[in-house]
């Protein structure tokens, strides 16, 4: 496996991975029309990723398998929830791995490369028990904060230093 910073030129491949992993992870957790809409707006999503991968935006790392397949990504940046809530300054904004790579260490390797042992927080979709268990093994704990949108309800998990 190889982990490397994402580049603007990776936007299309990253978009396709992001669409795939959402369908793999959330098929039973979100309305089907949400996943259909995401596929239908692929071109817009590629453009969005190009902007996010520009210098100065969040940091995104990609994981490639030995055969050159893109198998996962992690994105981090300054916490969007603000220091007024007593949160760490670092947010893990995304961590996704293809289902075919579950249990292979890709998720752990991405998390380690993205945040190391730093204090940080993240939001996880309710019902995503696999992700919750993974984050708990890495020292994250739910802090009781919740939010909802058209995709579903999420709860915040925090890892302190």
From TrEMBL:
One Pfam family from the record: Acetyltransf_1
InterPro entries for the chain: Acyl_CoA_acyltransferase, GNAT_dom
Keyword Plastid found: no
PROSITE patterns: GNAT
One Gene Ontology molecular-function label: acyltransferase activity, transferring groups other than amino-acyl groups
Domain N-acetyltransferase residues, every copy: 1-161
Protein keywords: Transferase
Protein name: GNAT superfamily N-acetyltransferase
Organism encoding this protein: Nocardioides cavernae
């Amino acid at each position: 496996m190889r982990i490397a910073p994402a580049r603007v030129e990776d936007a299309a491949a990253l978009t396709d991975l992001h669409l795939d992993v959402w369908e793999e992870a959330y098929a039973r957790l979100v309305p089907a029309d949400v996943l259909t809409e995401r596929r239908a707006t692929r071109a817009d999503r590629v453009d969005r990723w190009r902007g996010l991968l520009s210098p100065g935006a969040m940091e995104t790392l990609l994981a490639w398998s030995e055969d050159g397949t893109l198998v996962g990504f992690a994105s981090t940046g300054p916490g969007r929830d603000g220091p007024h809530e007593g949160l760490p300054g670092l947010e893990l904004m995304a961590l996704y791995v293809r289902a075919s790579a579950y249990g292979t260490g890709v998720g752990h390797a991405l998390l380690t490369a993205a945040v190391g042992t730093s204090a940080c927080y993240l939001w996880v979709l309710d019902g995503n028990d696999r992700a919750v268990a993974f984050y708990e093994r890495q020292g994250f704990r739910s802090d009781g904060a919740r939010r909802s949108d058209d995709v579903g309800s999420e709860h915040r998990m925090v890892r302190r230093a």
